[in-house]
Design goal:
With 269 residues, the protein is α/β, with parallel strands linked by helices. It contains 8 helices and 8 strands; from the N terminus they run βαβαββαβαβαβαααβ. It is globular.
Length: 269
Amino acid sequence: MSFSIAGKTAIVTGAAAGIGLAIARRFVDEGANVMCADVDEARLLAELGDGEGAEGTIRHFACNLRERLSQQNLVSATVDAFERIDILVNAARGVAPSDPLNPDADAVEAMLELNLMSALRLSQTVAKRMIRQPPVGGDAEGSRGSIVNISSIAARRAHPALMGYSIAAAALDQMTRAMAVALAPHRIRVNAVAFGSVMSASLRSALKDHADFRDDIVEHTPMGRIAGPGELADAVQFLASDGAGFVTGQVLTVDGGRTLLDPVAAPAH
């Protein structure tokens, strides 16, 4: 079984920082051609450059993924540079606090737009391109592409202060399943990785302001630590590779066992 993505072309969104950056770097190191998309062009260039990487080729595209024209231009730029698209990783995401009792501050619409709708619209645009292009190696039964969404265990946990984010994550998981069924006849796989506590840019920022937050996370994670972004990149590479050729519609949880715990302790005997 091979998890190789060498020679494939991937779009990675949210590639200027954190999880998206780790995935983009991993893909380049593994020999893929990667179009790195993010709204922060200066950071894209500073972190990834533009040209030849260690093994693969890097290009960058600065855009606001909430704009459909920007998404279409991203797809066009990728095809112009690499002729095809084999992998899409929807890693662009954001977190905003919610006040569930305040319709002006519940963050639901903002989180749905940023974390769900942009991924959905880009997936639809990329899928149409994948359907039109020849399968890998000219094999009529071969794969036409793989889409991997970056989700969160917040989809299955009740966090009132993150209600909007949790709702968007749950919707993204369901979108993953629905798109997987719709695109299976076209030999396009759609999966997601739901992460727990990963040292992303947003978590690193939160830990600066709340030092005790780290201890709380570690205490509620059976493996007793916070994951590095590279560990999430491992899971994404697996799902994007031909080694997962019969895997679709799945939400792979990478959380160190955190969702296995019941926070209510058993009564003492």
